[in-house]
Batch of 2 targets.
Target 1
Amino acid sequence: MSKNKISNIKGRMVFDSRGKPTVEAEITVNGKISGSSIAPSGASTGKKEAIEKRDNKNDFLGESVNNNILLINTIIKENLVGFDIEDQESIDNKLIILDDTPNKSFLGANTTIAVSMAVLKTAAISNKTSLWSYLGLNSEKKIPLPEVQIIGGGAHAKGSIPIQDFMIIPNGAPDFYSALEWVFKVYRKAAERLLEEKKLFGVADEGGYWPFFNNIEEVLIFLTETIEQSGFKPLKEVSISLDIAANNFKYKDGYKLFEDQKCIDNNIFKKQLLKWINMYPIISIEDPFAEEDIDLFSDFKLEAPSYLQIVGDDLVVTNPELIKLAHKKKAINSVLIKPNQIGTISETYDALKQSEKLNIHTILSARSGETEDNFISDLSIGWNFKQLKVGSFSRSERLSKWNQCLRIAEAMNNNFAMHTPPNLWDKF
């Protein structure tokens, strides 16, 4: 036990990257040392995700978090003052007990994660060390392989194409510096082409381009050509990753990608996805089906190429029990980890450990409503994640995460050593 005791906790309202109110928690230790953290927010969410609590009153069109702040400044403060700042598990357990609901609906997951993250940050500060170093679970730390959005759609660019994220993974890059340079080249080439072809509408929530395309296949052709025109070999050096986010267009017993189109049968939709995977340099696909269609995930995994990374996000929502179920069903081989989906750092760690125990590949992810808080960069390196997904290569709330990874690489003096891609991709 340390001598560093929580002496004060303060909540405040700040804003995320979409200009929506969110929760910041500030923790003081021994009356003089303090740290703070800000809760992110998702647009595309799973039905079993921990609840993001908002006031739903007149302030900020119902998006205010005044009650969250009140809960931090009263109930949470009263119950956590005096706790050892390094006893993360006990503090998180206390938050869970105070909430006393199955989905954090009383305190709100945006409240509990802000407090939980602030506790971890402040513990590192109290030990006069960086967060990534304080976590210290692996002495041979490396930078995770980046996964970066180029084209945004779905809930991140409403009125655009239904698939949420068209991303790239520089899976052939020898180090993190090269990985960022390769991403930079593809991102810039995409802008150049969209402007020339008069297809650029704006920028999506996560910093990717918000374009005009008539259908999904047009985007896949465009992105494949852009990779090639940037000087890279698809699959071998730079590949495509898709976040389908199929929850958003699940319709009755099938899927309805566009409002003016008929509903597509489950099996037809599955065959369409397999066709795209076989035609284009796609090595990763996230939430290809809605969360209630877990058996469809399993069928898809049986038919998909062995190299395909099949990622559960809305399907498992960083929940160890749902991860176990997905593994039992042979539905996925990878999982997205998002701390605010479950509500505390300790529960996030449990999800990570459960995934590793089942030999499921893990990817740490930011949210579409992000902040200037770089917590996730430190966490990705401290907990030895192999991949990191934070959005695109523009907007300061995104670049700040990549910048923090660069700082950490410099501090480690490891010449930008980066985790190798999953062994699924060894054939490339």
Target 2
Amino acid sequence: MFKKTKNFFIFIFLSILTVFSVNSASASSSPDETAFIFNTLLFLICGFLVMWMAAGFAMLESGMVRSKNVSTICLKNVGLYSISGIMFYIVGYNLAYGIPEGGYMGSFSSFVAAEDMATGYSAHSDWFFQMVFCATTVSIVSGTIAERIKIWPFFIFAAILAGIIYPIEMGWQWGGGWLSSMGFSDFAGSTLVHAAGGAAALAGAIIIGPRIGRFAADGTSTPIPASSIPLATLGTFILWLGWFGFNGGSQLAIGSMDDAVAVSNIFVNTNIAACSGLIVAMIISQTIYGKVDVTFALNGALAGLVSITAEPLMPTAYSSMLIGGIGGMIAVFGTQFISSLKIDDVVGALPVHLIAGIWGTIAVAITNPDTSFVTQTIGAFSVVIFVFILSAVVWSVLKMTIGVRPTEEEEQLGSDKSEVGIEAYTIQ
């Protein structure tokens, strides 16, 4: 009996001590400080989720290319991420966020952290979160022009895209530039990230040309089988997971109950749009081809994600299904359209990121009363045209100077042997 009584009082004492400890901790932190901490954590956690998307792109592309080019794809993806990190620090961040209100371009200067409680989050957490968006844009280019681009020209282009082209156009909206002043809205980057990456990829695909054997002399398309559907599927799941950081983190705050609810709604809408895109792509491929094409299914999910990214907060779940479902349609029919133009897009990035990105941006006007179809259309095509033209110039200069393609013999051999020297798969 004494032992039970003793344990009871010990329990009461520890409970009181815990209450006093919590109250003391609460007293030492102001509401502003608490919100600052939670907002910073949102940036950091969602930032490393988006960083994880780099692995998703690497696996997706590794699965979609032929086995003789897999090591090269892995090198390109880890390389472009590193280049993006350096370039966005040296010049990219201030090009985007040093822009005058309603202006067109910031300053060519290095990032300098200026901690300020008024911002609501740590400056370094903001830099990291924005940097991984930059790397995502560059990753989109890698998949489209895979198997016929030399490593170093690609890395040079990646540096220019990450350090100059992308920061300028993203600043037009997120840095308070002219698109923001016009009333354009792109919550998490359907246009600023995905359509922009798609535009850069399109310019590269046109200037570099298709892979050897991709199109016959009469113009008919010759499919080139993927090396690993399991890897492509794994990459899709990783991208799907990372997208919750992509869209959820773009709320930019979680220091209040309203922000927490908003992030939760964004997660739900993001997931539903992806599910709808995948299912619609499966149904369409079954209807057209009599079989379900797994690559269309995977790209349908990604197109659904891209479509909802411009506005993942305002739609209802059913509106998200519609927006994502149309993205799934784009993944299938867009692939056929791109192929009909004799443009070689290895992973299907152009319909998924470029076309679905434009669709998702225009669709914002359906659920967001603060913008319009005209404004959204002008904004989307302004970014796409700008990125396409500048990318075409860079690709053309690279082609005329150092060259962008391997020789025919090297391309047939595979870049793993001709450039990297290490094969991803060896058969003993």
